[in-house]
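Lecture 7, part B: from sequences to assemblies.

Below are the input chains for today's worked example.
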Amino acid sequence: MEWLRLIGVAVVVVGFALRLRVTVVVLAAGIATGLVAKGLDGGFGPGILPALGQAFVNGRIITLLVLSLPVLGLLERAGLQEECSRVIRRAGAATAGRLLVAYHVFRSLIGIAGIRLGSGHVIFTRPLVVPMALPAAGLAGSAGPGGSEGGASGVEVSPDDADRAVEVDRIKAAASASENYANFFGQNLFFGSPGVALVVKNLADNGHVVSALLVAKLAIPVAIAALLLAGLQYALLDRWLRRRQAARAASPAEIAP
Amino acid sequence: MSLAWLFDLEVVYVATGVVLAVFAGFTLADRANRARIGTAMFWLVLGVLFALGSHLPAWLNGVLVVILVAIDGLGLVRQGSYREAGQAERAAGADRHGLLLFVPVVLIPTLTYAGTRVFQGPGYTANDVLYVGLGLSSAVATVVALWITRARPVLLAHDGRRLADAIGAVLILPQLLAALGEMFKTAGVGRVIASSVAAVIPTDSLLAVVLVTCASVVLFTFIMGNSFAAFPVIMAGIGVPLLIEPFGVSPALVGLMTLTVASCGTLCTPMAANFNLLPPALLEMRDRHGVIKFQAPVAAAMFAVHVLLLWGLASFAA
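Predicted structure of the full complex, as structure tokens:
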């Protein structure tokens, strides 16, 4: 019977597999989990709906990014993305991959300095990293974030454009990934980070006293491995882009995916 | 004099609620949006949850969450028109303002960081200072951006709404998943996983225990979408009783490796919506799982690195 507690997990797996609307799947999983727990041992004393509402309201911190959307949107209107691509053109030797290595290192240094900014996708990736990475990959005019040239409105797109759209998507994915890699594997280099605090506190609760500095030191090989592996992936991205662009230059009509 | 009173999260919650209500108002007037009433309702209900969530009864908050999901479930959150600037207008803006455009962007993290350094010590809660600071820095950056660009303030509403609509209902997913995580915790999902793993694990081989510890924290993080939620469950159920105590492995080593290997699960799961699903929406990618697909190979390689590091360093020290 204990296994029934995992019903929410099953709902999520099935819902994602069937590509149902994610918000609906998650809500259904929450309600199913609550019903089972209530049935097994009368958990959720105050009721499932209040528990859900309370938990949602307690998580408002995650969505504070709304406050920076107006200014970032306004700056895009005023030409922020165009200015980013001019900076990159002046820099000359930049490629998308090299730029991402630079961002990865920069983001890790932010972690080492103990600077906590939450997630950098809103304040760095959309306004700066993607608008610089696309022109560095020679994809300047092909829709930065927010660019409406993606052919979304059912307009006929040429094979070349469709081809570029795949590259734009991959670069956006890589830019988001560089933020995640450096954030996840870099933040514990700072001995005062929440992750290190969690480890120290948890071990103390289990009867083992350890120093935060030692925990942070052990994060060094992890951060180095992350930089090397991610760096390899960024280099492969550059190679993939070069090959596709070379193929496109050679035979403009037909490109293998 | 202490300024601790300033760093009350309620301030940024209400401010966010007001911003969302403004989005809702402009959406209602947006005739280019085929679902303008549904979309406006969505932003308005979310705004109410933000501004009044601390004061409304919990059951009513729950009802509002269900309404949000219902609006999205019916496909009534859509995009409209935002008086977008064309390529020529944006290029002219870049000509006129140049590098000054970076000033507000750089101000947000810089001011947030400065705030966390200046306002610390007794009376201040680090998290509150961080998040309220982020809100205040956004406000300052907004004023500076208006001053640099001389744009009409009404454009803030159009452009903010443009980005919010581009993200759409995905905006509430991180919060919704955090709520689901809370439900899982209350229902004892972690207990079931940790106890069933501990029951089948071969406890005499260090490598096997290392492998199972890493795999189970990754699996549990994949389910919860949050390594910080998975970590204590796996440490209490497996890491401490089966790895640290019988094998005498350094507790700090086990703790740190168990925490960071969990991030390999975070990199692969749609449950970590703020890291994996929000960015594709925010960056207007075609493939909403594109970030996860890109991250999966590095996550797999990092998993192997963690197993080897933990096993190697543990055997070396023993």
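Note for the exam: Chain B has two domains: 4-174, 188-317. Keep this in mind when comparing with the next example.
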